[in-house]
Amino acid sequence: MKLVFATNNANKIKEVQALIPSHITLLSLADINCQEDIPETQPTIEGNAIQKAEYIKTHYGFDCFADDTGLEVEALNGAPGVFSARYAGLQRDASDNMNKLLDELKDSENRTAQFKTVIALSINNTIKTFTGICPGKITTEKHGTDGFGYDPVFKPEGYSKTFAEMPLAEKNSIGHRGKAVSLLIEHLNHL
Prior knowledge:
This protein is α/β, with parallel strands linked by helices. 29% of the residues lie in helices and 25% in strands.
């Protein structure tokens, strides 16, 4: 089975490739010669994932899946949420995003947050979604050098390390994307 993972994010591809069973060939956007920016104009994480999957199916004809992920911070009424990648501006700079988040939370004792990933699978002319959530807390400063995005400031519930301090296998086993991908794989194994 061949599936396109509708992302240009090499870190996401690496994370998901480590989880996908060997009978599924994962293709990237580069593999199908998709150079354009896929629209992400929906007001929700789920909406963006569906929009991206439908775009690839419509324009390239491949069965595919797409994900969208957001960091939802309780003290910020769920922000940055759907705007996580461009929280500090259109430059989509992870360091700028983390600095803005830490600054906005500097006087807050409530540091409760969760990562949420929604994967939309477009296969056999149907769309199905899979959601993974990882609860945790925002740290007061950055810790660790692995991972990407907000990983250096997110400490999953029950752990003393941030995602950026964990080996990839550990992060995948407890993380939001790993949970959503597990649900996706379980579904694919029954097709």
